[in-house]
UniProtKB/TrEMBL annotation:
This is Cytochrome P450. Pfam families: p450. It is a single-pass membrane protein. Belongs to the cytochrome P450 family. Signal peptide: none annotated.
Length: 485
């Protein structure tokens, strides 16, 4: 029975979808639609998906995209993820797509993502339910909470990680960045403490889970996708147990200031909905900002001038804090990290942690003379705009100073966090995490690559060797020192 279901799901359905695609392509051509140029070539059923997702350096758009853009232009058609697809490397169209969410276009991730993140995950929800979940997430990461609660938490978790680094022995900076963001999210979502057995177990389970999110959705015993579904249910068991403890001990305990407590008290969500919300926030808030941090560490080791300028900025902030007799970062300190924000922007522009998002077309629309038919998939590719020489001068160079120019700083072509009604709900938290981490990193250590490495995208960004680095302490205690070369 299980095998039959799998055969239908993974073989019959794609065959039917491909047939539907070809029949409709003929119909669309007969209607004399002016479809964007492109081809429907590629493998049966999966089309060009493998070529499109073929791993390529994260600071490039990959061979497939390069060839297609140079042959067909910035808007082309293809057959991706088993569906007729329009791919957009056009900044204006990308903005148009994001801003018309729910009206002309709608968020539409492959079914396998929903299978693994859950049907109530924010990434797959649309309409009213999406708005409700989004409001809860925005409340949880509101400006007030960022200042009062999340800033000290981010600082505490940064110091915990930095203090554990061995001097002059290689370790994986990517792993450390992941540990930092995972522990931060686990604490803020469910009040789980770093280094406790339960948290470590959940973190390891989560690594298996992530391998499935980035694998082919083949649900057979032993495949990464199958293992990930098992991990999902183990992770959900932990979250569920936490939830039951809270409900059971409601009278005796003071409600924790975490997302679980908030969702239980202030929302009408069902247990299943809360579970998927928590898991999707863990996913959205963990993988992205950890990769952004790892990329910053990588780009900065090759840019001593940027590190020097960062150290001067953070040294000044730490000095003034010391003069005030304060030991911890304040919101005003954070607001002074101006060059740091340039480094963060440049890291996200060049590294493109989220390279594109999935949408579907809700109604026929014309754009720049092309017909974009209802029912097609459409992919706004942010990376292609961020690495376009017509938009950014020398786009492949790490140049944080470009963000000091008002023209670049005010551009609306920069979309690392998406845009419109689905703009990343955690963008302010992500910036805070990166800025605070960089503050203590540049004041505490000098670092170098222990082995050469490069980040690849397929489409999730990962360093091939985990970004092995060696660090050398500038001072003894990362929290007590001011910087300086
Ligand atoms: C550098 C780090 C980050 C990047 C580049 C990033 C990028 C993005 C992008 C591009 C989207 C839009 C997805 C779409 O439109 O389909 C998104 C959505 C989202 N992100 Fe982030 N993100 C980051 C960090 C975070 C953090 C720290 C959190 C906090 C938990 C978070 C929570 C979310 C949520 C909840 C959504 C769904 C929003 C919605 O559907 O309304 N993100 N993110």
């Amino acid at each position: 029975m299980f095998i039959i279901q799998e055969l239908i799901h993974f073989y019959l359905l794609p065959i039917l979808m491909a047939l539907f695609f070809y029949i409709n392509l003929i119909k669309w051509k007969r209607k004399r639609l002016n479809l964007p140029p492109g081809s429907a070539a590629g493998w049966p059923f999966v089309g060009d998906t493998f070529s499109y997702l073929k791993p390529h350096p994260a600071t490039t758009i990959g061979q497939f995209m390069e060839q297609h853009v140079s042959r067909y232009g910035k808007i082309y058609r293809s057959n991706l993820f088993g569906e007729p697809t329009i791919v957009s490397a056009d900044a204006e169209l990308n903005r148009f797509i994001l801003q018309n969410e729910g009206k002309v276009f709608e968020c539409s991730y492959p079914k396998s993502i929903g299978g693994i993140l859950g049907k109530w995950s924010m990434l797959v929800l649309v309409g009213e339910m999406h708005r409700e979940m989004r409001m809860i997430s925005l409340n949880f990461m509101s400006n007030v909470r960022l200042r009062s609660h999340l800033l000290p938490e981010v600082e505490r978790h940064t110091l915990l990680v930095l203090r554990s680094w061995p001097e002059s022995s290689p370790f994986s900076a990517q792993e450390e960045a992941k540990k930092f963001t995972f522990n931060l999210m686990a604490k803020n979502i469910m009040s789980m403490n770093p280094n406790e057995a339960e948290t470590e177990k959940l973190r390891l389970e989560y690594i298996t889970f992530m391998k499935g999110v980035i694998s082919a959705p083949l649900n057979f015993p032993g495949t990464p996708y199958w293992k990930a579904l098992k991990s999902r249910s183990n992770i959900l068991k932990v979250i569920e147990q936490k939830m039951e403890e809270r409900i059971r001990d409601k009278e005796e305990r003071e409600e924790e200031e975490d997302l679980l407590g908030w969702a239980l008290q202030h929302s009408n969500l069902s247990k299943e909905q809360i579970l998927d919300l928590l898991l999707s926030l863990l996913f959205a808030g963990h993988e992205t900002s950890s990769m952004a941090l790892a990329l910053a560490i990588f780009f900065l080791q090759a840019s001593p001038e940027a590190v020097r300028q960062l150290r001067a900025e953070h040294g000044g902030i730490a000095q003034r804090r010391k003069e005030r007799g304060e030991t911890r970062l304040s919101w005003e300190d954070y607001r002074q990290m101006e060059f740091t924000q340039c480094v963060i922007n440049e890291t996200l522009r060049l590294g493109n942690v989220v390279r594109f998002v999935h949408r579907k077309v809700l109604r026929d629309v014309q754009y720049k003379g092309y017909d974009i038919p209802c029912g097609w998939k459409i992919l706004p590719v942010f990376a292609a705009v961020h690495l376009d020489s017509a938009v950014y001068d020398q786009p492949h160079t790490f140049d944080p100073w470009r963000w000091q120019s008002t023209t670049t700083a005010s551009t609306n072509n920069f979309m690392p966090y998406g845009g419109g009604p689905r703009l990343c709900a955690g963008s302010e938290l992500a910036k805070l995490e990166m800025a605070v981490f960089l503050h203590y990193l540049v004041l505490s250590y000098r670092w170098e690559l222990a082995e050469s490495d490069e980040a690849f995208a397929s489409p999730f960004v990962e360093f091939r060797r985990g970004l092995p680095i060696k660090v050398y302490s500038l001072h003894q205690d990362p929290s007590s020192e001011v910087g300086g070369d």
